[in-house]
Structure formats: structure tokens, C-alpha cells
From TrEMBL:
TM annotation in the entry: 12-34, 46-65
InterPro entries listed in its UniProt record: Preprotein_translocase_YajC
Subcellular location: Cell membrane
Example GO biological process: protein transport
UniProt keyword terms in alphabetical order: Cell membrane, Membrane, Protein transport, Translocation, Transmembrane, Transmembrane helix, Transport
Any one of the GO CC terms: plasma membrane
Subunit composition and interactions: Part of the SecDF-YidC-YajC translocase complex. The SecDF-YidC-YajC translocase forms a supercomplex with SecYEG, called the holo-translocon (HTL).
Statement: the UniProt record of this protein carries the keyword Nucleotide-binding: no
Record organism: Mesorhizobium alhagi CCNWXJ12-2
Protein name, UniProt field: Sec translocon accessory complex subunit YajC
NCBIfam families, per the entry: yajC
Family: Belongs to the YajC family.
Membrane-topology descriptor: Single-pass membrane protein
Biological function: The SecYEG-SecDF-YajC-YidC holo-translocon (HTL) protein secretase/insertase is a supercomplex required for protein secretion, insertion of proteins into membranes, and assembly of membrane protein complexes. While the SecYEG complex is essential for assembly of a number of proteins and complexes, the SecDF-YajC-YidC subcomplex facilitates these functions.
């Protein structure tokens, strides 16, 4: 027999037309069904294809973009409302009182006897709002 020889050092592959190790294998392949080509499925609508991306963008807008814009708007209003007498905290953690508003971007801050010129953008928080400055034209 020319197939599998147990204990033999020379292996000769079996021909699959007849018997292998005494087993007849012609009937084994009757359980395998042929795989025929499938028909092309219907293409999804373009709207359905784009819908997940639109939903992701809407969720990102409401969870990330919109709150960040509101925060920036609130911070801009806070920085624009700084006036003389306000107690502020700078970005470096220095706490002082605003003594003079130089222009739209600079402030003079008194840090306990030391006056420092700071940019409005470096102010991280306004702790105590000062009293409104009296209009100097009203005294005249």
C-alpha cells in the first residue's frame, strides 16, 4: 500500500483518488456544498451613508464646541469689565488690586506695595469687584 505507512521514515503523499490508509475518501466531499456567487445587494441611500457623520458632528458641537464658545464669551466679558479697584488673580498666581486701566489690553496692578503692568489676557480671575469709579465730569 502506498499511502500512510506508520513507522516508516519515507512518507509518500497519498493520491486522493482512491484509498488513503485503507479508507475510501470519494464520498467525503458530498457534504461540501458549492459556494455560488451572490447577487449584488442594494446600495444604501446617500442620506443614510452620511447620517452617522452628521450625528457625530452634532454631538461634538453640543458637547465640545458650544460650551467652549460660551466659556470664551464669558471670559471676554469678564476681562472687558475689569476696572479700578477690582481684585484680580494673574496667570502666575499673583493677587493684586487694579489701580489703573491703561488701555484695552493693559492694567496696572498693585501687588502689596509693588505696582506691575499686566496684560488683560494674563488675568485668570476677578475675585472682588471694586466700587464704580465716580465720573470726574460730574464734579465740575
Amino acid at each position: 500500500m502506498r499511502g500512510c505507512k506508520a513507522g516508516s521514515s519515507d512518507y509518500i503523499p497519498a493520491n486522493f483518488g482512491g484509498t488513503v490508509c485503507g479508507l475510501h475518501i470519494s464520498g467525503v466531499f458530498m457534504f461540501v456544498t458549492p459556494a455560488y456567487a451572490q447577487g449584488v445587494g442594494a446600495t444604501p441611500d446617500v442620506f443614510i451613508s452620511i447620517l452617522p457623520f452628521v450625528l457625530i458632528f452634532v454631538i461634538m458641537y453640543f458637547l465640545i464646541i458650544r460650551p467652549q464658545r460660551q466659556q470664551l464669551k464669558k471670559r471676554g466679558e469678564m476681562l472687558a469689565a475689569i476696572r479700578r479697584g477690582d481684585t484680580v488673580v494673574t496667570g502666575g498666581g499673583l493677587v493684586g488690586k487694579v489701580t489703573k486701566v491703561i488701555d484695552d489690553s493693559e492694567l496696572e496692578v498693585d501687588l502689596g506695595g509693588m505696582k506691575v503692568t499686566a496684560l488683560r489676557a494674563t488675568i485668570s480671575d476677578v475675585r472682588v469687584k471694586g466700587e464704580p469709579v465716580a465720573n470726574q465730569n460730574a464734579k465740575k
